[in-house]
Design brief:
Strand order of the largest sheet: 2-3-1-4
Number of helices: 3
Number of strands: 4
Strand content: 35-45%
Largest sheet: 4 strands, antiparallel
Distance between the termini: 25 Å
Length: 90
């Protein structure tokens, strides 16, 4: 399984989750876990996804999600699980 951490942060608007999930479904990316909160009008979501079924390279997916985020007014970042774990190790 190829796990990726996707974070989405920005001002809350209608359709953020729908647009991100639509992209994931269209690219055969399975959502394993998802958490989202809205604090004083700011949206924050963290997803753990499985990219095993995806036909694209990781960098292409990350670039497309970044562009999607820019189009909907949020910041979307992708990190492979092993890199995320190493960066957040105490």
């Amino acid at each position: 399984m190829n796990k990726t951490i996707i974070t989405v942060v920005g001002k809350d608007t209608v359709g953020i989750i729908a647009k991100v999930c639509t992209y994931l479904a269209q690219n055969q990316i399975n959502i394993l876990d998802i958490s989202q909160t809205i604090v004083q009008g700011f949206f924050n979501m963290m997803m753990i996804v499985d990219t095993n079924g995806m036909d694209k390279h990781f960098g292409e997916m990350a670039d497309e999600l970044k562009l999607l985020g820019e189009n909907i007014g949020v910041d979307i970042k992708c990190q492979k699980e092993e890199i995320f774990d190493k960066m957040h190790r105490i």
